[in-house]
Write a structure and sequence with these properties.
Blueprint (H helix, E strand, L loop, with lengths): L17 E14 L4 E16 L4 E5 L6 H8 L7 E6 L2 E2 L5 H10 E4 L13 H11 L5 H14 L16 H13 L5 E5 L7 H18 L2 E6 L2 H7 L2 E6 L2 E7 H6 L4 H8 L51 E4 L2 E3 L17 H9 L2
Parallel strand pairs: 3-8, 3-9, 6-7, 7-8
Antiparallel strand pairs: 1-2, 1-4, 4-5, 9-10, 10-12, 11-12
Helix pairs in contact: 3-4, 3-5, 4-5, 5-6
The structure holds iron/sulfur cluster.
C-alpha cells in the first residue's frame, strides 16, 4: 500500500476493513452495425482509498464524476477493469459470484431511490427477510424474529411488515432499504446518495439513524453524495472526485477548513452560508463545461476549468500526494510546498483573525 493514504487506522487494527488500490472501471462504447468498440467511458480511472472499521468515508463530486461507479465496483456489482479491492487484507478483485457469496454478508448497499430499489410485489417483511433466506440464515421463526427486530431498530412498526412498498412514504421506504442492508450483519455499507431523493426534514432523520446504527454496530460507510453539508455532518474523512479520479482526501475538518485543490475550493465556495454566520467566502465560478469521460483532457483533468492552470497542467498528470500530514491532493500548485488556494476565505483564517488582539 505504499503511496496510498492509508497509514492511520482509527481503531488500531492491523489493516483497514477495506482497501482499494488504483481501481479502474472503463465501459466500452460500441459503434456501427458490427458493434465495434470505438472508445471507452473512463468512469473510474485509478482511485485508491481505505476505510477503517467504524469509519465513514464521504465520496463527493459532481454528477457523472464516477463516485457511484466506485461504490458499485468495490461491491463487485460491476467488474473492475483494473486495480485491487481487499477486505480485511483478502484480495477479492478476481473472485467469481460463488466465491463472493460470503463477502456479500459483509458488504451491503443502500440505494438512492428507495422506491425503485424495492420489489413492488413483495411485502416489506419479505424484502427485509430475503437476504436471510438467500444466505440460509437461521430457521423460519428465527428469520421472522430478526426481521421484526430490524423493523423496530430502523423505526418501523411490526404491523408494517405485511405492507407493500407503495403504501410507505419515501423516508419509510429508505428505512426498509436500511433494514434490508442490515439483515446479514454487514461490516461495510455503501450508501449511494441514500438521502438525496428525500425531503430535507426526512434526510436529517435518516442521517441520524445511519449514525446511530454506526455507533451501535461499529459499521463502516462509504457515503456517496453531492451534498457537501450532508457529507460534512456524517463523514470522518472525505474524498473528492473529479472525472474518475480522487483529487483530494483528508479528514473532514481539514477539507472544509483548508481545501488544497482548486476543484474542492470551487465546490466549497458554492455551499450557501447562513446570513448570520461569521463566515465569509468568495465565490469561485468555474468556467467551461464538464469534460466528457469518453475523451477526458490530458494532464490534469481539471485544467480546462482551473483558475490556477499552469502550462505543465496540460500534459503532466498530478499524482495524489500527501502535501501536509494526513492531507492528500493531486495538484501541481503544491509541487514546491503547500500553497493555499487564493480565492476562498477559509474558516480557519477568519477564526485566527478574530482571535488576534
Ligand atoms: Fe489546476 Fe494545475 Fe492543479 Fe490541475 S494541477 S488543479 S490545472 S493548478
Amino acid at each position: 500500500m505504499s503511496g496510498l493514504p492509508s497509514e492511520r487506522h482509527a481503531d488500531g487494527s492491523a489493516r483497514p476493513l477495506l482497501e482499494v488500490e488504483n481501481l479502474k472501471k472503463h465501459f466500452p462504447v460500441y459503434k456501427g452495425v458490427f458493434s465495434r468498440v470505438s472508445g471507452h467511458v473512463y468512469a473510474v480511472d485509478g482511485v485508491s482509498f481505505h476505510i477503517n472499521r467504524g469509519e465513514t468515508l464521504g465520496l463527493v463530486g459532481e454528477s457523472g464524476c464516477g463516485k457511484s461507479t466506485v461504490g458499485r465496483t468495490l461491491l463487485k456489482l460491476l467488474e473492475p477493469t483494473e486495480g485491487k479491492i481487499r477486505v480485511h487484507g483478502k484480495d477479492i478483485t478476481d473472485l467469481d459470484t460463488q466465491q463472493m457469496f460470503p463477502y456479500r454478508e459483509q458488504m451491503q448497499m443502500i440505494y438512492q431511490d428507495p422506491y425503485a430499489s424495492l420489489n413492488p410485489r413483495m411485502s416489506a417483511g419479505d424484502i427485509v427477510g430475503e437476504p436471510l433466506i438467500i444466505h440460509q440464515a437461521g430457521t423460519r421463526a428465527e428469520r421472522q424474529e430478526r426481521v421484526a427486530s430490524l423493523f423496530e431498530r430502523v423505526g418501523l412498526r411490526p404491523e408494517h411488515m405485511s405492507s407493500f412498498p407503495h403504501m410507505f412514504s419515501g423516508g419509510q421506504r429508505q428505512r426498509i432499504g436500511i433494514a434490508r442492508a442490515l439483515a446479514l450483519g454487514p461490516e461495510l455499507i455503501v450508501g449511494d446518495e441514500p438521502v438525496s431523493a428525500l425531503d430535507v426534514s426526512i434526510q436529517a432523520q435518516i442521517i441520524n439513524l445511519l449514525m446511530d446504527l454506526q455507533d451501535e454496530f461499529k459499521l463502516s460507510y462509504l457515503f456517496v453524495a453531492h451534498d457537501l453539508a450532508v457529507v460534512e455532518h456524517i463523514s470522518h474523512r472525505v474524498a473528492v472526485m473529479y472525472l474518475g479520479r480522487i483529487v483530494e482526501t483528508t479528514d473532514k475538518t481539514s477539507l472544509f477548513e483548508m481545501p488544497l485543490h482548486p476543484y474542492t475550493e470551487a465546490l466549497l465556495s458554492a455551499v450557501p452560508i447562513p446570513k448570520a454566520s461569521a463566515r465569509r467566502r468568495n465565490r469561485v465560478i468555474l468556467t467551461g463545461d464538464v469534460p466528457s469521460p469518453i475523451n477526458p483532457p490530458s494532464g490534469c483533468h481539471f485544467h480546462a476549468r482551473c483558475p490556477y492552470v499552469m502550462p505543465r497542467c496540460h500534459h503532466d498528470v498530478p499524482a495524489l500526494r500527501e502535501v501536509v500530514p494526513g492531507h492528500w491532493t493531486a495538484c501541481h500548485l503544491h509541487d514546491g510546498g503547500v500553497r493555499f488556494p487564493l480565492a476562498i476565505d477559509v474558516i480557519a483564517r477568519s477564526a485566527a483573525t478574530k482571535q488576534s488582539p
